[in-house]
Amino acid sequence: MACPMSNICRGLRTVSLVLFYYVFSIGITFYNKWLMKIHVPVRWCCSSPQDFHYPLFMTLCHLIIIFCLSAMTRCAMQCWTRKTRVTLSWKDYCYKVAPTALATALDIGLSNWSFLFITISLYTMTKSSAVLFILFFSLLFKLEEPNPFLILVVLLIAGGLFMFTLKSTQFNLEGFIMVLLASFIGGIRWTLTQLLMQKAELGLQNPIDTMYHLQPIMFMGLFPLFMFNEGLSLATTEKLFRVNELHPLLYSLFALFLGGSLAFGLGFSEFLLVSRTSSLTLSIAGIFKEVCTLLLAVEFMGDNMSTVNWLGFVVCLSGISLHVGLKTYYSKGNGSTVRSLPARENPDMELPLLMPRGNCSESEDEG
């Protein structure tokens, strides 16, 4: 029987990791909105030095920063553990990593792009619909078995989203479609990511290794869309390539590096939270994170939320909570709706992002 002090320490550690995750997760959402600033298309943007209306270029810069930080972290981990980090062959890289990387690039790119048009509250609510698409593709790839309760989950989330957008006073169709499309692609992204990280022969159970391998193809996949939409405008802007003063350039570079660091910190904080607690903790923390994000958006960003909007949000969260509860129930041996995929024995800091397994990290302290 564990002593009370041990339970207290474990509880404090969990709370600290959740708060650490919140800093990066909520922080990058508000950062993206802060950098985009005004809900106008790129071609209509104003010239204020605080407004940086190049979401795709911003995403590309973040990918470069994440790649560099991942490479540095891999080197540090290799020196610490004295074990060589995995490096995939070109065949595995092109055929097995590329689909996940392209889906991830489109998901992130469209999500960041949408901040030019919509509020944080509408973005948060619409992005929650990703659970629907993750469920759909999990069933399609047979990662989960059909369950009658899933129909209720889908109805609650879809109904909540409908109620939220129906009475939204700050609704923007273009931004809404972008986020909804990003959520659909996100369903593909996370399903492929789960498959990728659980393929024992690839050895990508550690998200640092996964991020390191994904970023180059993500960059190449997003670059053509950037050139078509923002290339000419960026080449002629006074904030970067036609800069007249040093201050705006330093401001832009600092802002881009800050966002890249937040994006890397988000992936790393998710990794720490799940590896030190469980994926259930991450799922529950994600539900409360949505509430915190909306409250902060209303308080500090001027988002307007009607009673119907809040009711729709509660209905949507009820669906997400039911989904998390069902996965927890079945993962504890009361049934089986989730098909376990093969994983390496004794993996180095393994992170099962989407598979809630109750004892995923009670003995992870050697990591």
From TrEMBL:
Transmembrane domains' residue ranges: 12-32, 52-72, 116-141, 148-166, 172-192, 212-229, 249-268, 280-298, 310-330
Keyword Transmembrane: yes
Sections of the chain in a coiled coil: none
Localization: Membrane
Domain Sugar phosphate transporter residue range list: 14-322
Keyword field contains Nuclease: no
Pfam families referenced in this protein's UniProt entry, alphabetically: TPT
Assigned keywords, A-Z: Membrane, Transmembrane, Transmembrane helix
PANTHER family for the chain: SOLUTE CARRIER FAMILY 35
Name recorded for this polypeptide: Sugar phosphate transporter domain-containing protein
